[in-house]
């Protein structure tokens, strides 16, 4: 099944790169370079594989108990935070707020699982 939009990081006409801008420096450039191969790998997977993995981690986090449940939620929070960081320059204020809130909520649920409050 082919996805639209080409490969991540492709230089299509008018494209400004994987993070939405050229010339990233410092930490952002290092993260973008490190992320290139994993993002391409994830992009090449069938869509259902990623959906099943996210759903499985969410079910583990919500239905599981203790540290295993917390680990599932923390993994989801880390992936969401990673993708949010990569997309941050091209997001508007509401997109940024949504990603910060979602990542914070997932991490909060994970902490609550660890201490036994959820």
UniProtKB/TrEMBL annotation:
Keywords: Membrane, Transmembrane, Transmembrane helix. The chain crosses the membrane at residues 45-63, 70-91, 97-116. Residues 1-23 are annotated as: Disordered. The keyword Transmembrane helix applies. Residues 1-12 have a biased composition (Gly residues). It holds the Pfam family DUF6703. InterPro entries: DUF6703 (IPR046549). This is Uncharacterized protein. It comes from Actinomadura algeriensis.
């Amino acid at each position: 099944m082919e996805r639209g939009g080409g490969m991540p990081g492709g230089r299509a006409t008018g494209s400004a790169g994987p993070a939405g801008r050229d010339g990233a420096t410092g930490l952002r450039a290092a993260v973008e370079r490190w992320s290139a191969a994993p993002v391409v790998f994830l992009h090449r997977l069938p869509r259902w594989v990623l959906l099943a993995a996210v759903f499985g981690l969410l079910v583990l986090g919500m239905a599981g108990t203790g540290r295993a449940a917390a680990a599932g939620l923390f993994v989801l929070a880390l992936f969401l935070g990673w993708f949010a960081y990569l997309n941050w320059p091209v997001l508007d204020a509401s997109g940024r707020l949504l990603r910060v809130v979602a990542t914070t909520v997932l991490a909060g649920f994970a902490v609550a699982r660890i201490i036994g409050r959820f």
